[in-house]
Amino acid sequence: LHVSTQANVTNKESAKIWVSLGAERLVLARELSLQEIKDIKEAVGENVEIETFVHGAMCVSYSGRCLLSNYLTGRDSNKGACAQPCRWDYVMYRKHIDGNNVDYLPIEEDERGTYILNSKDLCLVNYIKELSEAGITSLKVEGRMKSAYYVATVINTYRRAIDNLYNNKEPDFDYVEELEKTSNRSFTTGFYFGSKDNINLDSSKYKQTYDFIAVIAEDSKDGYVLIEHRNKFKLGDELEILSSTSSFNKTIVLTDIKDEKGNNVEEVKRVKERVYIKTDLPLLKGDILRKKL
Question: At residue 289, what are phi and psi to the nearest 5 degrees?
């Protein structure tokens, strides 16, 4: 029995009640500090697993209590249909007592804008040791409505970071820089360390430094690999590899592109078009190619 973050477990007393009802794992609310998580772990004991969010979208409502989307649009956040009203650009209007005139009153946290409910994304990839020492046994990524490219990038990064930590290896690439290659709203450590820099006041739009270009359709062989189009690419482009293998972050310069009939191709832009590209790298089916923006 796992208790969801929807249960809003924010203290050790509620945690102990869930354990008394048979819970084997508690997915804690996002609003807790690392010290509060330690306190809950000590209260429930070693036999109860603790899971916490470490990456992805943050909501301004308390975990499991989001009513804003339901109230404004009729779409229930707690049933997976959130309209994300916390990302909207808010303004205020004042109606005069005579009812004839209306004043526009901009809401400004400061001079940068009015996205006063728009949280940055959570990112704790550089704090896995601290999370482990606090008794957290499972790291949770917010991935609702995310692309395969997003999931692959985030999970690959955290998997490598965890492995490096437990094998006593220094980071062999910049984890945050890698995570910036897919969609994000800038990063924060949330409430774990008492951070107050949680709100992105500039824009609610996602940003990223790389585009998802193609997915490997078959294992490479004989100096070529079959790939399937996701975004436009052409001869001369330099593509970077996203993979769980040693090919990770290596690059390919496109010097030779052929269609499935062996004809030379200069540009690939048709949806899911399949072509062969020249490479001696050992690429596997499911690996991803991306291009710097």
Answer: -110, 135
d(CA 61, CA 82) in angstroms, rounded, equals 12
DSSP secondary structure letter of residue 106: E
Give the other-Cβ count within 10 Å of 232's Cβ: 14
Rounded to whole angstroms, how far apart are CA atoms 164 and 174? 12
Token output for 183? 């969609």
Indicate the DSSP class of residue 120: P
pLDDT, one tens digit per residue, over 83-115 is 888 888 777 787 877 777 788 777 666 665 567
Query: Could you tell me how many residues make up the chain?
Result: 293
- Please say whether the beta carbons of 55 and 158 come within 8 A: yes
Angle at 139 between CA 88 and CA 126, to 5 degrees: 80
pLDDT of residue 161: 97
**In Å, what is the CA distance from 165 to each residue of 182, 196, 233?**
23, 28, 36
Whole-structure pTM value: 0.88
Residue 117 pLDDT: 83
pLDDT at 147 over 90: yes
Strand pairing partners for 276? 226, 258
Cα separation, 215 vs 287, whole angstroms: 6
